[in-house]
Design goal:
single chain; mainly beta; 4-stranded antiparallel β-sheet; 11 strands
């Protein structure tokens, strides 16, 4: 990583970590091989896990990473995303908080 490591999360099959310089990496936990390494031109502020995906706050956006599939961008807050939570009972529900003083349900 080019910057300081911010967070690390594990689910049943994968491990993901983010660095403050806009970098995310995802590894296959069984093979220990990196399957995704992406750099963004924005600050990554938070990382949360679902059962088959990871979700990040990248600048004002919420991005869902699903191994071997295209990323999903959920939209923008008006300011930096500061926290995320995936509903464990309904993993299709993601809650985000932002420095714009709003909470959004996706």
């Amino acid at each position: 990583f080019k910057g300081n490591l911010i967070d690390l999360k594990l689910n049943d099959c994968f491990a993901a970590c983010i660095a403050e310089q806009g970098e995310i990496k995802i590894w296959n936990a069984k093979t220990k091989k990196c399957i995704l390494s992406q750099n963004y031109n924005d600050q990554i502020t938070c990382l949360e896990k679902g059962s088959t995906f990871f979700v990040c706050g990248i600048g004002k956006k919420i991005v869902i990473f699903r191994p071997f599939e295209k990323d999903i961008i959920l939209g923008d807050h008006e300011d930096l995303v500061s926290c995320l939570q995936v509903d464990q009972e309904n993993p299709l529900c993601i809650i985000s908080g932002s420095e714009d003083k709003t909470v959004r349900l996706w």
